[in-house]
Amino acid sequence: MQFSQPPEPDMRILSALLSATMAAATPAYAYTVEEMWAEFDASKLTVEEKRFLQFGLALNGKYSALMDGAWGNGSQRALEAWARNAGLDPPIENWEVVLLAAESADRVQADGWEQRYFEPMDISFAVPAGRMRQEPATDAFLNYAHTTSSLRYSLNLGDLPQVVGIHTYALSSALPGTAPYTLRREKVLITSVKQAGGTILYARSDLRRNGWSSVVLSAAKRDQNLLNAVSGSITKGWSSGIKLPPGGEIMEGIASMATILAEAGQNQPNEYASLETMREGMTAPPAAPVPSPAPQQPAAAPASPAMPKPSDQALQGSGTAFFVSEQGHLITNAHVVEGCETLKIDGRPVGLLAADESFDLALIKDAPQEAGVVAKFAPRPAGLNADITVAGYPLAGLLSGLNVTRGSVSSLKGLGGDAIRMQISAPVQPGNSGGPAVDAAGRVVGVVVSKLDAKLVADATGDIPQNVNFAVRGEIAKLFMFQNGVEPVLGDEDAPTLDPVTLGKNLEGVTRLVECYAVPK
Prior knowledge:
By secondary structure, the protein is α+β, with helices and mostly antiparallel strands. The chain has helices spanning 11-23, 33-36, 47-59, 73-85, 94-111, 160-172, 224-233, 249-263, 334-337, 454-461, 474-483, 500-510; strands at residues 113-118, 123-128, 132-135, 142-146, 152-158, 181-184, 188-194, 200-208, 211-219, 235-236, 314-323, 329-332, 342-345, 348-356, 361-365, 387-392, 403-411, 421-424, 436-438, 444-451, 469-473, 511-518. The chain has three domains: 11-111 and 245-263, no CATH class; 113-236, Protein Transport Mog1p, Chain A (3-Layer(aba) Sandwich); 305-521, Thrombin, subunit H (Beta Barrel), CATH 2.40.10.120. The protein has twelve helices and 22 strands. The strands form four sheets. The protein has a seven-stranded antiparallel β-sheet, with helices on both faces. A hairpin with a 5-residue loop joins β7 (188-194) and β8 (200-208). It is elongated and about 95 Å long. The termini are far apart. The model is unreliable at 1-29, 266-310 and 454-458 (pLDDT under 50).
């Protein structure tokens, strides 16, 4: 739809920004009339102006990405969607962007939206400061609520196990049949799920100078636009506010529109109440950005551990490992490498890079692997009752060669509700520990860790359990790798199901026997 003259926007929307301008309005235009109807060109805007527009589009439910001020195809599509919703046809013209900015400013002022820097967490994010209340805190979280919507904030500054618990809980709460969104990087983790009842849960954790800073957001489906606005505003360290810079293109456009409307006798002044003070625990932005020290990188381990003379060592046990990078990194269990003075794969010593007892995972380093011959991880967690295949070297002194068994995911949690592990029905024997558990497409969904002690359970219950085995969840394994500088290779989202023979052949290519040597005590 094309207009020969400006439409009549709601003066309430414009008045908050224009009252000062109108007091001294003159016939002079910052934009000419022709320029107001020219096609919009985002390259003329500052980063701060583009961030403001992105935030406004998010409040309108049209934008769900980062408010980074980079105006790409996603931002332009969101702007066009907003225009269509307003009954306007492309191409987008300057007066339409001015109208969006004024409308957004009205919404920002109504709820007191501000970009706040929370110094202990060393992150910034948007809060509705004018309509925000502090809720009772829990052991791990500071909690806040938006008083006029279902939007809720929970803030945590903690360690890695707490972060794992947050994201594991988020994944476990996903509504069956829905596809969670996950992002796993060395210093940032994101999980977003749909829960029963239509609630959206979003969790983001960033490694900052004081530890892991986590922002957990939740909102009913009807308020997803608010959640998207906040999640897209999260920034490491200090960031500039949600505002239009004086003297910018948009403010000049607003001044021009104000003058046009004033000359037409359409302006009606309106006043707004001042913003409320930020709740306890939320701090105002400092006068200047506070530089953050560079996060520490995981310490590199020596290529191989210091070893006593080989003649003094004897084989103490064995387990399974599998290649996760072409550089020669392998994953196994921490208990497989515990107490080992020398680790060997195919008869050659390998180095231990990291081990985590809480996850029961270890990272070891062998020679570089043949290109492409590495285990790929599933991009999403395995579902309940999903088919899985387990590979390993059980009972190495009795059996020879790779052993492959099949089963399913029988529970999404481990013993006693342990969120780090899942229960599997595939048969597991001593020596399987550290082996891959893969889905029907051959993508890793877990790392075999143990089987239930049948004698212990029988003594306690009088019954012998059958096929009660466990694996560390694939999401936890990916997190462990990220923390130690190894990027997991992800399989395709729509990878085809493999026939059993091909699946076994692929597992044979990436799975290895790990031998543990030490001086006998």
